[in-house]
Amino acid sequence: MTTLSVDTIGLCAHFSPQGDWAFELALTLAKRRQVQLNIFHFLSDPFDPNDTTGRDIPPDQRAQLIIDLERELRFRYEERLGDYLLAGFRLCEDNEWKELHHCLTKREFQVLVLPWPEQDSLFGGRPIAEFADAFVCPVVTVGPSSPYDLVLNRPAALIADQLGFTPGGWTVIGESFNMGESACSVAMTPHMA
After folding, report:
1. Are the C-beta atoms of residues 95 and 87 closer than 8 Å to each other?
2. Does the CA dihedral 127-133-137-138 come out positive or negative?
3. How many Å apart are CA 172 and CA 136, to the nearest integer?
4. Which of 125, 150, 175, 192 could share a disulfide with 170, CB 3.0–4.6 Å?
5. Pairing state of beta strands 150-152 and 171-172?
6. Whole-angstrom Cα distance, residue 103 to residue 38?
7. Tell me: the pLDDT tens digits for 76-107?
8. pLDDT of 23-35, one tens digit each?
9. How, if at all, do strands 36-42 and 8-12 pair?
């Protein structure tokens, strides 16, 4: 059994049903372990390679955009966090892996939860499964068809029991799976023992 010190859970925010499912899973993991949940939002949407928001705009407009995006992020999640105070928000200016990797090295998360909005979704300009498989820490994706579609990269699969995931309630990136069927067996804690 592999163990990892999990002191923070990271969530890449996405304003979609799949983003809501990922938030619920990340919050469940954080509450269960009584650890910090850090919610990351991006100046340019890493799920949309055509989004150029925030690039090449004057500094004063960029500062206002950052303030507006942070306000939107907090508005979306603060009420849903309820009385769970171990939460932080971070607006990332780089929409690829570099800034997330920097946050990982600063221990802003040890496990990353990513929504999987559509079957052919990209993240940071790469297919989401490819991004998750190549990322250096445990990554759990949620979606696209249901909140029970959990796909883990190999580091996450090694600590699935530590995270409380039910055996057989998830698949590993690279193994064959059917996204049309529920990959998970428990209620928003359905994938948790």
Report:
1. no
2. positive
3. 15
4. 150
5. parallel
6. 10
7. 999 999 999 999 998 887 766 788 888 888 99
8. 999 999 999 999 9
9. parallel
